[in-house]
Each structure stands twice: as C-alpha cells, then as structure tokens.
Amino acid sequence: MKKPRSRPIFDDSDFPISLVRKNFFNGTGYYIDELMDKPLIGIVNSQTDINPGHIHLDTIAQRVKEGVHTAGGMPFEFSVPAPCDGMTEGHEGMRFVLAQRDLIADIVETHVRSMRYDGLVCVASCDKIIPGMIMALGRLRMPAIFITGGPNAWQIRYRPSMKGPVDHKYYDDLVDKLATATCATCGACELMGTANTMQSLTEALGLSLPRSANVPAYHAEKLMFARQAGKRIVEMVEEDLTTDKILTMKAIENALIVDLAIGGSTNSTLHLPAIARACGLELPLERFNDFNRKVPTICGISPSGPYGITDLYVAGGIPAVMKRIAEDLHLDALTASGQTVGDIVAAAQVLDEKVIPERTAPFFPEGGTVVLTGNLAPEGAVVKQSAVAKEYLTFTGRARIFESEHSCLAAVREKTIVSGEVVVIRNEGPRGGPGMPETLAVTMGLELSGVRGVALITDGRFSGATAGPCVGHVSPEANVGGPIAAVKDGDEITIDIPGRRLEVKLTTEEINKRLASWKAPERDIPDGFMRRYVKLVSSAARGAVLE
Fold first, then answer.
1. Residue 416 lies in domain
2. Rounded mean pLDDT for each run of 10 residues along the chain, 547 residues in total
3. Which residues are identified as catalytic?
4. What is the CATH number of the domain that holds 431?
5. Which helix (H) or strand (E) holds 68?
C-alpha cells in the first residue's frame, strides 16, 4: 500500500505539535500507536431526526464502522446538513434546499482535506445530499464508496380518483391515506423522485456496491451492504482505487443513460452536470437529447407508472436495468466494487419482467427526461415526458403569467385557472427565486382542484413526483432577462415534446422590444449565505453550480 494520506498526522513526531495531536486522539479514547498503521476512514453521515429519509442512517453508519474495523481500518464519523424538499414546501426554507447541495460539497471537501482521511464512506438518502457528496468526491480524488439509505415502505398502492375538485372532507381523508401509503417507515419517498433517482445513480456511476442502492431502508440486506461497504473501503485504500478512476466521462454518461431508462427526476439535469464539473468534465444539457431518442424508459416507476422502488429492488435493481440497456453503456467503466460495469451486467438477473421488461417492450419508447429549446428557452428547459399523458405531449395555449409561485398558489386556491391555459411562473430560478425552489405545491394543487388541460412552465424546478405537461428549469431565467420575462398574458405558447421545442408566438424583434423596457422585480434576499449564493450561482442549464 502506498503512503497513506493520513500519515502526515503521525510523521512529525520530532515536532512539539505532535504532542498536541496525540493528546487530541487520546481525548477521543484512542491510543495513537494503534492508529499509525491503520487507514483512517471518514464516514460522512447525513442522519437527522426531522425527516424519514435520514432518521435511520445512524444504524447504517454503525454497520459501516463494524465493517471498517473488521477489515483493519479506524472509522471516524462526521455529519452534514440534510435538507428535505417535502419539509420545506410552502415556506422560505425551500429557497435554501438546492443551495445546500453546494454547501454540502464544500463541507465534505474541506473537512476531509483538513483531517487527512485515507478513505471515505458516504451515508445519505435524499435529493441534494447525495449529489453534494459526489461533487466533493470529484474534487477529492480519493478512495470512496456510497451506502444509500434506501426507500421507505409503500404498503398501500393508493391512487385516488380525482375527476373533479376535491372538497375539504375528501382532502382530509386523502391526506390520511397518503400519509399511511407513502411514509410508512424510514427511508426516502417510495417513488422515482429525486431521492431515489440519485440513490440509483450512485450505482450507475460506480460508487455503490451492485444492487445496494434500492434495498429498502427497513430491510436487513441494507445493513449487510453497509457492513460490506465498510470492509470494501479499506480494500480500496490498499488498492489505491480513487474516485478519479471511477468518476470518468464514461461513468457520467452511464448515469445519464440509466437515468433515462428508469424515468428519473428532472433534477438530474441539475445534478449530473454539477457532478461532471466537480470532476473537471463538462456535461452539456443537450447530452440528454443525444441519448433519449434511442434509450427507452424501461421501467414504469411512479410517478411515470404503477410500480415502486421496492418493486424495482425485488426485480433485480439497477444491475438488472443495466442488463436491459447494456448495448448503450460503457461496459469497461470501473466501479468501487473493483468490477467493471460489464462484469456487473453479466452477473445481473431480471427477476420480474413486468417491472423490468425487455428493451423491445419498454414502458415508454424514449428516455424519460427531455430537453426543450426554442425562443422561450434558448439555453434549454426540461420535462419528464414519461410522466406526460399522450394527449399532452404537444400542447398549445394562452399564457397566464404569475410573477411568483406564491401568486400562482393563490389562483389555484381561488380556482381561477381554467382549461387550455399555459401557467407561467417566473422569477423562481437560481438567482430570481432565490435558490430555485420547486413548485410541487402548485402541481399538486392543480391536480386536486380537478382542472384538466393545463400546462405549466417555470424557471424554477419541480419535485421528482411531478407529472403532466410541466416544463421547468427555463434558461435563461427571468431574473437575468431571459425571454420568459417578456411573455404577457394571452401570448400563445406551444410545448412540443416530440419536437423538443418550447416556443412563444412572438418575433425576435417583439421579444427584444419588450425586454428593453423590462426591469427585474426586487426580491427580499436574506442576509448571509443566500446573498453570496445569488452572486455566484450559474444558470440551471449549467447545473446551478457556484461559479
């Protein structure tokens, strides 16, 4: 084994400062002599008591420690924030969720660099934490492995019938049923939202042990995989298997392809480019369109179809999906297991062909996520086409403008939005939001109101649970003078998903004329971190990363 990263902690024994460190290690209950010849393994854990996705992660981290000890390493745990979109819906906290992705990346990077760990195990479950940790790994280029928290139980397949408006009595009953159905245990929301998309993509990137990502949070196999991950990281240190050998362009393209095949969240169009950039690579937004016409959506996982993440796990997990699309993958890409993607695919089994069908009989003939461009979104916008009903794949309607999500929610509650309208919510991008909040409350409100034949366009983002003709991440955003800022009530807008176009029926001259007199609305930006974020954040088309 090469000289460990941690050895500088111990090598300067002739200097007085070594005595300080010795005392510090003694203060944690360790003899420094027992540490000198063992790899020091950091375990970054996003456990928190406030949401189900993370509440169980201490148990998983404990099993990781056992594995590290068994393999001859010394584990040291530290923590990061664990933001939750669901817990922040409807209040200012939503504006800080995406921003924390980059904050988490910075926390992990700076702590690991300062403490000189030899290897790192990442323990996380949800939307922004996983990509934030992976971004740190791209910068650190050290031995590292992931163990994800897994999905929660989906005990009740409850699909309410909403053919008309939902009254308060029905709504209360709906809330009770959905609470039981969707959050019956610890773990991430049991659908192909952003949390389970990113858990799945840790495998596709080669950062998790094969088939580990989708194991339910409450399942004994999750604890077994945690222990294996702890043992494996010590081996990776000995092998000098670092993340720069795993997080290559081939790995990132594999993740993009798997994302399309599982109908992953549109938020992957933010996270994968951000991960690529952290690795010194570039993943232009249009790369999604390079693959989505030839890679089908193999799986019909909610909200695209009838199955849950537990079904995917039972059917063979991500390796089984990769087996179906092997011809599109870079099979020589290396993984944290020491195997290539080709090795994993060769050993994979499809155990339920209803959940993971043949490539020739997919749930949807094209990849789930589509990038639209046009005079309304010159840099791109995104939509999950696998979750859009066939009759809405092409949609033309009159614009109904809202300058914020809050004002749109008021219209939803007042039931003033009517069929045939294209709801436009602007000033909710990375800079204008600020923080690019998701608009799940609006999409849920429209669903519960009973309104049909309505499309939604925004420079904000969506939850992975969003379905229907909802186009987000419109870039450039309104706050920087993007064309979406020029649209007025009544303008005709066309969403053409098959044609990959998003157009407003205006000439370039008219758009420029309107923008010449446009002024960005003032936003109340909190002091501190958010003010720095707004100054540094890039467009959604570039992953909303800090420049």
1. 370-542
2. 65 65 77 80 94 92 97 95 80 86 97 94 95 97 97 60 45 54 77 92 98 93 97 97 98 97 94 97 95 94 88 96 97 98 98 96 93 97 91 95 90 89 95 88 78 90 78 96 96 97 97 94 87 94 93
3. 463
4. 3.50.30.80
5. helix 57-70
